[in-house]
Design a protein that fits this description.
- It is a single chain.
- The chain is mainly alpha-helical.
- Helices cover 58% and strands 9% of the residues.
- The protein has a two-stranded antiparallel ribbon with strand order 1-2.
- Strand 1 and strand 2 form a beta hairpin.
């Protein structure tokens, strides 16, 4: 009689999805600690939310203040204060659009780009130190595992509303 139970290595209780999930939670907590510690010594010191907001504006320069608030899932007054702190630090610039005085556009300044590059470099160095303590085989296994995770995540990620083709629909807007 055939069963759906995996054979061989997959029967290891450590490979069960819930066991693996708990292990990943512990590992991610270590990674998050390393991630934020790498940004602690950078001047000016930013909160995690401020850093995330600055990174978001850099990645999505079309965002205005309202769109940033929505992206961060915070209220408009909170986003405005957060951006005000980044402006005061010289990392972000706010400009009122001439065609719509109510629209505030956001732009990362040259100092902001240097700041983000410094944080990225520090994070990369911290990760490289950890990876340097691994054997080449462990690094290769990690790389394969991360690739497999990304592929599985893509298969299980919910489709955006209106996309029933799984990414193969018609282009919209321009």
């Amino acid at each position: 009689m055939e069963t759906d139970r995996p054979t061989g290595r997959d029967q290891d209780p450590g490979n069960e999805p819930d066991t693996l999930a708990r292990h990943v939670v512990d590992t991610v907590e270590s990674l998050v600690t390393l991630w934020f510690a790498a940004a602690e010594d950078v001047v000016p010191q930013l909160s995690a939310r401020q850093l995330f907001a600055l990174q978001t504006v850099r990645r999505r320069p079309e965002l205005n203040l309202t769109a940033l608030a929505e992206h961060l899932e915070i209220g408009l007054p909170t986003a405005s204060r957060l951006c005000g702190r980044l402006v005061s630090a010289g990392l972000l610039q706010r400009t009122v659009q001439p065609h719509n005085r109510r629209e505030v556009r956001l732009m990362v300044t040259a100092d902001g780009r240097r700041f983000l590059a410094d944080v990225t470099e520090r994070r990369s160095l911290c990760l490289a130190t950890v990876f340097g303590a691994m054997t080449p085989g462990e690094r290769a296994s990690l790389q394969r595992g991360l690739g497999a995770f990304e592929q599985a995540h893509a298969r299980t990620r919910p489709q955006p509303r209106g996309d029933t083709q799984g990414g193969g629909g018609a282009a919209t807007g321009g």
